[in-house]
Write a structure and sequence with these properties.
Length: about 250
């Protein structure tokens, strides 16, 4: 599925599709982009729903400058949802996107959606992991002479190597042509959002919140998820990017 979209006044690229009263908001993970939902968006449409898939700022085709704090991302998405009926809106956020979904569910950015589903949200961060994210945020973007090299790098940093065909439209959405070469469609400075307690942010969600993760996801455990959602779901034989591996399975969470 080729993602075609538009850019909002504040520089946030987004694609829409489907028909129906209910809206499913698809929020990607850190270093990825909206195209990772190329398999799930048609399923949402087939279920009689509309869908909205944005690129966070610093990702994909959206504006490539900060600030990149969680609250800024949530405000960006809230602007895209202006005019939508919150009682007919469900947010599905993967990893980083699940944190933004929980913030939208807090009510701090307008009426909370009817439901938030967080998939593969890393709840526990060590001090070393936070320091590592800050070091990554300080690095300049890598420039490559060939598009293929940039594609390989983009898939690697998004955790999609081996899951997404490098020649696909999904992979192409993750690369931008720059002066002198090609680069991943991602600003490393976006790693700087890491730091606030994810547990605390998730617990601040007023909307009904459901958590799920793949059985093979090394970033999430059932024990961590049940601190926030006692009914958390483990998806058998799936990894961190379950929405890419098995979009039909993830669709059932909605």
């Amino acid at each position: 599925m080729a993602f075609e979209g538009t850019t909002s006044a504040n520089g946030i690229w987004h694609a829409r599709g489907g028909e129906g009263e209910e809206l499913v908001v698809l929020l990607h993970g850190l270093a990825a982009n909206a195209a990772v939902f190329a398999g799930l968006a048609p399923l949402a449409a087939a279920s009689g729903r509309r869908w909205l898939a944005p690129d966070f700022r610093g990702h994909g085709r959206s504006v490539m400058h900060g600030p990149y704090g969680y609250g800024v991302h949530a405000a960006d998405i809230a602007l895209l949802l202006d005019g939508e009926n919150p009682e007919k809106t469900i947010v599905l956020g993967h990893s980083f996107g699940g944190v933004i979904g929980a913030l939208l569910g807090s009510g701090l950015y307008g009426p909370p959606p009817a439901r938030v589903v967080g998939l593969g949200v890393k709840l526990d961060w060590s001090a070393d992991e936070e320091d590592g994210a800050r070091r990554l945020a300080a690095k300049p973007p890598k420039l490559f002479a060939a598009r293929g090299e940039a594609t390989e790098h983009a898939l690697k940093i998004a955790g999609l190597a081996g899951l997404v065909d490098p020649g696909s439209e999904t992979a192409a959405h993750g690369v931008l042509e720059r002066e002198g070469g090609f680069a991943a469609a991602f600003d490393p400075a976006a790693f700087g959002a890491v730091g606030p307690s994810i547990d605390a942010l998730m617990r601040g969600c007023r909307a009904p919140l459901a958590l799920a993760a793949g059985e093979r996801d090394p970033m999430v455990s059932r024990e961590a998820m049940t601190r926030t959602d006692p009914g958390a779901v483990v998806l058998p034989d799936l990894g961190h990017n379950a929405h890419v591996e098995a979009p039909d399975v993830v669709m059932r969470l909605l």
